[in-house]
Amino acid sequence: MAESTASSSSKLRERMKVALLMLMSILLCLGFLEIVVRMIEPKEVMRYFYSQDDTILHHKFKPNATGRYKTTEFDTDYKINSLGLRDKEYSVQKPANTFRILVLGDSFTEGDGVFSNETFSKRLEEKLQSQPGPMKFEVINAGVGSYSSLLEYLYLKNYGLQLNPDLVILNFDLSDVYDDITYTPLARFDANGVPVGVSPSGEPEGLLKGPLASIKDWFKNNFRLYNFIRIRITPQLEMAKRQGNFNGDIHHDKYALIRETYVDADSNWALTHKYLLLTRDLLKEKGIDFWMTVYPYGLQIHPKEWKAGRDYWQFRQDTVYSTWPQERLEQWGTANGINVVNVCADFKRLSKTVFPLYLDNNGHWVAAGHQLVADVLYTRLLSYLHEKYVAASPAAL
């Protein structure tokens, strides 16, 4: 009996020794990979460094964060101001004799791939400021990557209105339809069905404030390997699962609206229309004018634009896809009292003489694309400002 007990104890010690060796090997391997990731991709050049979870906006920029955003296609600096925006500093209180424009949007508006002073918001501000006259102009860039009509409404309601804008321009991206469908299950609504916040996870607000959330946040803040897997590897694995399954279903396909297999239905647009109308009504109540811009992707204006992106998202090469979704939204917006600026035709014209206008892999505008949007908005704004101010008071501008 004693021999059997001793034998069992010896086996247990051996198993514990093997388990300990395996654990140490795993930890050493993870430690080595952590060092490698820190060497090849420092935290300060990964985009997550500038972003944080938020229980109202799902995610937002970290106020006053600074660093770089570097990929194989570009290397730009990032300076987030005290308001949590990728822009220079602005006071919450609007200066006297100033016309202030607040621009809402996603990564195209944020300026993914270009420097802050190259974004269309800053180019537009420069052009407006060059106008003679006593009035000054501010164009505030409130674009944040992966925002959609829902998050833009929540930002405007909770933060943007505090800036007292005279005009709000929402820079609409076709992926907003997919994003609104994705974010809505995470949203909280009041008794009237109006959204009040979008949690950064599928759990109700407050449920993740326990140990699990603390552990997750600790890993996110201290281990680059964790973020590398979360941001770089996991999306690639998810994409691999989807290969061959881009069938035009807007509930699962970010670019469904462009695909020839997409079947249009009012129900697909219902959430986006709802949030845009909430934005329109909120601004109307405050006496603030509301514009919306719609723009094309590279594969909608030129057969050679966005070649690498086409392969990744399974679009045909050497093909120009239809801009019917932008035209559809323009018609809907106009019918609902929203001033819509459709720049698709402007991009097509410019693509005949300027190439590229989009980053080949990333898919966002290069500086020339931002300049085009600024030029179109500037022309529209001159007519708008003349009608709004000069006609009533010639000395106003």
Q: What would you say this structure looks like, in words?
A:
With 397 residues, this protein is an alpha/beta fold. It contains 12 helices and 11 strands. It has a 5-stranded parallel β-sheet, sandwiched between helices. Strands 1-2 form a two-stranded antiparallel ribbon. The chain has a two-stranded antiparallel sheet with strand order 3-4. The longest helix has 39 residues.
List the helices and strands and how they pair.
Layout: H1 2-40, E1 51-54, E2 58-61, E3 66-70, E4 75-79, E5 98-105, H2 107-110, H3 120-129, E6 136-141, H4 149-158, E7 167-172, H5 175-183, E8 187-189, E9 195-198, H6 211-222, H7 224-242, H8 266-286, E10 289-294, H9 307-313, H10 324-335, E11 339-342, H11 344-350, H12 367-390
Parallel strand pairs: 5-6, 5-7, 7-10, 10-11
Antiparallel strand pairs: 1-2, 3-4, 8-9
Provide a brief overview of the structure:
Helices cover 44% and strands 14% of the residues.
By oligomeric state, this entry counts as single chain
- Beta-strand content estimate: 5-15%
Order of helices and strands: HEEEEEHHEHEHEEHHHEHHEHH
Q: Given the helix and strand composition, which structural class is it?
A: alpha/beta
**How far is it from the N-terminal to the C-terminal residue, by CA?**
101 Å
Gyration radius over CA:
25 Å
Q: Counting H and I runs of at least 4 residues, what is the number of helices?
A: 12
- How confident overall, as mean pLDDT? 88
Strand order of the largest sheet: 6-5-7-10-11
Shape: globular
Low-confidence stretches: 203-208
Main pleated sheet = 5 strands, parallel
Task: Give a count of the beta strands, DSSP E runs of length 2 or more.
Answer: 11
Percent helix among the residues?
40-55%
